[in-house]
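Board work, copied verbatim: Carboxypeptidase-like protein
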Amino acid sequence: MTNVSFYPIGTVGEKWGDAEKAAWFASTQIKRSYQDNVVTPLKAMGSQLGVLGLSVVQYGALSIDPARYPLFAVKSATFDPNKITVLVTGGVHGYETSGVHGALAFLANNAAHYVERVNLVVAVCVSPWGYETINRWNPKAIDPNRSFYTKSPAEESAALMALVASVPQGFDVHVDLHETTDSDEEEFRPALAARDGKAFIPGTIPDGFYAVGDTENPQDAFQKAIIDGVSKVTHIAPADDKGEIIGSTVVQHGVINYLLKALGLCSSVTGCIYNTTTEVYPDSPSATPAECNLAQVAAITSAIDYVLALN
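↓ predict structure ↓
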């Protein structure tokens, strides 16, 4: 485990400047292949998706290496105004593996069940550089999942916002796929504290799946439907002895709420009524990578099923 009392970049109590951010960037390493693990499987689905009336579209590319990091989404080829419209986002935090591979698994195995009933947009890996370096931030030490607002400093977030804006009828459902990992506590939260010149206060990582709703629009029954669906695949995180999960009050089994828009979170990007952020725990001794991917798929399908049942 990383020594969380001291982060090796920067001066304790001082915010990072350009030199510290450059040193942090220099410390990152490519650890896996976005092209091999994400782009190639997605393109291999192209003909299968085409038969379903879905198209693989490029909606941008990262400036650090546009050829290496194109941004892809799968969209309904035509949008029917009489159908609900669903957005699925994976890999906003690139290191959160099951978000990316859960989105791919949904497209490969489940999308066919829904294409006649919903308009669909799936952004498989919003942060491909973060995917390759197994990182929460982008190359500029910016968290894309705190950057969904006007004039975003994160190009990953700005590109996704432009994609969302290109769908004029708007969205009814958004499922944003995430993980909470041991590395949050060991690496990423200490780095955040160092970057911002703050003291790191250790926390705890919940063992199991949980969902994050919107404090201003909680939609409790919708969140419960997701928890019920995921519980058939993997275990749900219990509240800690304070009745909390990662410092937030548990409002029902496996659910906490955040002020999504105020925090610039991805799940606020559409302004839709039914949105959720999934949080899978891949480091649990009781879960496998395959199980984590299936939990993400269960969250997507449970969310869509709930809203379809209302219409």
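The chain has one domain: 18-310.
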